[in-house]
Here is the input.
Amino acid sequence: DTEVTQTPKHLVMGMTNKKSLKCEQHMGHRAMYWYKQKAKKPPELMFVYSYEKLSINESVPSRFSPECPNSSLLNLHLHALQPEDSALYLCASSQAGTGGWNTEAFFGQGTRLTVV
Amino acid sequence: LAKTTQPISMDSYEGQEVNITCSHNNIATNDYITWYQQFPSQGPRFIIQGYKTKVTNEVASLFIPADRKSSTLSLPRVSLSDTAVYYCLVGDDRSQGDDKIIFGKGTRLHILP
Here is the structure.
């Protein structure tokens, strides 16, 4: 199984809502990533978990809260988002401890988030 | 992480070979070169990775000259379904222990019938 599964595929939320994005992989990867992608822009790294510990936070606003409950699951909790946070949110996984290099990263299909 | 420069966009025709070149002048000794493909509203997909010389798989070839300051992704006999954004990434497998994959601007490839 070389899939990274993200749910939901689409999400519309109000600015006062709390929602969560979920990501799951069963490849035994110990590095998991969250990216944000706006239209016609490259994916922008948000968070990295290595061995279930948050190793990188790219100065992401606190209204985005990541969580890694176990080695297969990654969540992104959303609260009080702004319309400009509307984007495609991508999850990825890879072998850990390699800087993300000399390894293939697998990406999910993403969650299309719209904040109204 | 080494900075990469790619053409913003390219057009080609079905059945032709397409070569996309990426410049990475400050590539470090331990850096690998990796290419990803992304279709609209989908996650990026790994295409190929190399360190030096030539790498070939069922999808593409990657040519890396001896000085490693550039690399060329070669897609043989493209079809309309190869229309996508192609990203060149360069990075070090010992990047201070941080697992970090950073995307540059990418090349938007448009295949015409």
About this structure: The radius of gyration of chain A is 13 Å. DSSP finds no helices and eleven strands in chain A.
